[in-house]
Amino acid sequence: MALAVRLCHQTAGHLAATSPDPLRIVEQDQTARDVYRVLDCLPEGDRRILILFELEELAAYEVAALLGIKAANARVRRHRARARFLKIYQEKFPVCATDVTRLRCENVSR
Predict the structure, then answer these.
(1) Whole-angstrom distance, CA of residue 6 vs CA of residue 24
(2) Is-above-0.70 flag for pTM?
(3) Measured in whole angstroms, how far is the alpha carbon of residue 9 from the centre of its chain?
(4) 3 state SS for 48-109
């Protein structure tokens, strides 16, 4: 069965590449640089919240414990920081609505 799957993915007599598309890698790197530029523009509190939640992928209770606040407060701060982040991002790097949605859904490469 595995051989059948590989044979179905042949292109011009060669097996399809399993490595990521180089253009996709460049786009991800550029997006990551853009994200870090916007993070640098944010106030320290917003930057800290977004890094802990989005890049470190910590839960609200973990962020709250680190910052000495309640989990509900951490979630409110994350919501506000995301709004400020998106506003600055859209000002610096005008994008269409689908790109903004993608930013909300994808993790940024570290």
Answers:
(1) 23
(2) no
(3) 30
(4) HHHHHHHHCCCCHHHHHHHHCCCHHHHHHHHHHHHHHHHHHHHHHCCCCHHHHHHHHHCCCC
User: In this predicted model, what pLDDT tens digit does every residue of 66-100 receive, in sequence order?
Assistant: 999 999 999 999 999 999 999 999 998 886 545 55
11 vs 78: CA distance, rounded Å: 46
Cβ-in-10-Å burial (0-12, 13-18, 19+) of 4 comes to exposed
Q: Is the dihedral of CA 82, 89, 99, 103 positive or negative?
A: negative
3-state secondary structure 64-77: HHHHCCCHHHHHHH
